[in-house]
Fold this sequence. Notes:
22% of the residues lie in helices and 39% in strands.
Amino acid sequence: MKVLVKLVVLSTLLLVSKVSAQDFQGVATYKSKRKVDIKLDSTQVNSEMHQQMMEMLKKQFERTYILTFNKEESMYTEEESLAPPQPQGMQMVVVSSGGSDKLYKNMKEKRYTNQNESFSKLFLIKDSLQVHDWTLGSETKNIGEYTCFKATMTREIEDVQSGISVNGDKDLSRDQTPKMKEITITAWYTPQIPVSAGPGNYHGLPGLILEVNDGSETVICSKIVINPKNGSDITEPTKGKALNQEAYDKIMDKKLKEMEERMRSNSRTQDGESIEIRIGG
């Protein structure tokens, strides 16, 4: 009789554990910051204008993101915010790459869907999740109430140099053949939240990624709610022009070249200072 009771209790515990795993979900808030250090020619831009520009650029990259996740899926979106004010007497156009409007990832099926509005057109990028070659370390640190472990990986990226052009004095064209450079990406993940999700394109660790740094940008979790009372649905985006990542990248390269050419043409015909800034990485 005692054996029967124990078996019944064990079966009940296993059932509860299975149900909890199926229902497990969470919402994490991340904040991003980027290191910006661009040297300017003092004969063209005075120190006060330089400081204003650097402050504005820092604000451009201080963003807030929401990651909704469960055991198998996640959705990463940027929280809407007001654009930072332009310095008085200047109009600046920052040419950068990356970012997404809605990034859905299915870790079980190893695929993602990125709904992204670029150049006033809605795209739906569908492709396989990249396999990250993480090296797991033993170093730990606390982020909030969670114990996190360090993981690193290296990656080759285009060495697109940061630059600034005042009245077209420098050619920031992307036509030049870029060199490649190797960077080290450091992530901190917590096994206390047993999902392989993370911010942006990062995933694949035995726990939720709470912080990631690629040498120029840091994204860190500031708040986590596990199993929120009202729940949070994760719905894969379906609207937009469907294409894979390679096709999307080709379109963006073409659009950026066209935009840069228009900016150079405008700088030759307009009065006043024309400032173009490219942030590499």
